[in-house]
Design a protein that fits this description.
The protein has 9 helices and 2 strands, in the order H-E-H-H-H-H-H-H-H-H-E. The chain has about 260 residues and is mainly α. The radius of gyration is 18 Å and the shape is globular.
Length: about 260
Amino acid sequence: MPDSVQSALTKVPAVTLGFWIIKILATTFGETAGDTVSMSMNLGYLAGTGIFASLLIVLVGAQIAARRFHPMLYWATIIASTTAGTTMADFATRSLGIGYPGGSIMLLTLVLVSLAAWHRALGNISVRSVHEPRAEIYYWLTITLSQTLGTALGDWVADGAFGYLGSALLFGALLALLACAYYRTSIDRVGLFWAAFILTRPLGAVVGDFLDKPVAKGGLELSRAGASLVLGIAIVVLILALPQRAATKEAEHGA
């Protein structure tokens, strides 16, 4: 790729329909894989967090060191953030005892603080800024916090009257409303992107729980490891099959 073309690109993917499909699958995988390590393997939430957080740090470092967008590296980092988010949220809400409401409110506050600090430091929170280390650090910090928030929020809603399927329909409907707002209003596109990005995580969390939770609790009681394997294969196939291009530094429609 010519230097002039590469210099106009970021190290994150363009926001397309394929991006959102893979993102939802990745968040679902994060729920089942996180639960596999912390619950099925009986390592606990703290140990699971240590494993996935360490992997996340290594992958974020690789992302920052990379000179251009690498689809497999990017999505591996997303998956690490969502698995780490699963175990971190479970540790906060269950082991620390702050509960789903407390965890959701605390994590939402942290996401908003991260976005505000990013905007204050660099002037925008668009993916078009993710081409230099400071922006990348803010980007991955915000993403990890949003993945953690999504787990707590999804568990909170699913634990109530909605259940897993009802919660999936609720979060899916909210995402559909954001899509309508994108196409039919002039609401800030960057704000819509982050709202959608955050909401894909609780959707993935409740779908993941629906797959592996006991039938008596409204789940399908599938093997967590088996579900993770199938989801992982589907993600890799989609990454290879769907066009993967880097977002440009110029303003894009989705972010």
